[in-house]
Amino acid sequence: MKLLAQQRDLQAKIPDIEKCFDVVATLQTKKGTGEATTLLQNNLENAKASLEVLIADLQFLRDQVTITQVTIARLYNWEVHQRRFRQAATAAPKDS
Which residue from 1, 17, 20, 23 could staple onto 44, CB 3.0 to 4.6 Å apart? Predict the structure, then answer.
């Protein structure tokens, strides 16, 4: 849940940074200040990189959840099979 919240925050933050970058780039052409543009560019790159890492982490977690669910289902099915086998083994002598 924490990763999903971080992903939402970054996805909301990136467009804002891009808008600020556009505004600062426009101002830079008029005033000639490059520090703000460099700072915003670094922030934008960092936010995009963080988003990519979060997306990869979420995909990994989804895969792990799927693997865990499949394993639990297999164990349950094995246990059901074993129970039926035991019931059949105990019921067979009674029929003889």
Answer: 17
Residue pair 18/66 in contact by the 8 Å Cβ criterion: no
Does residue 8 lie in a domain region? yes
Which segments of 1-96 does DSSP mark as H helices, in order? 2-31, 35-95
**Token pair in block for residue 26:** 């426009």
Cβ distance 47 to 13 under 8 Å?
Answer: yes
Show the domain range for 9.
2-89
Task: Give yes or no for residue 35 having a pLDDT over 80.
Answer: no
Displacement of CA 76 from its chain's centroid (Å): 27
d(C-alpha 18, C-alpha 52), whole Å: 17
Whole-structure pTM value: 0.65
8 Å CB contact between 66 and 57: no
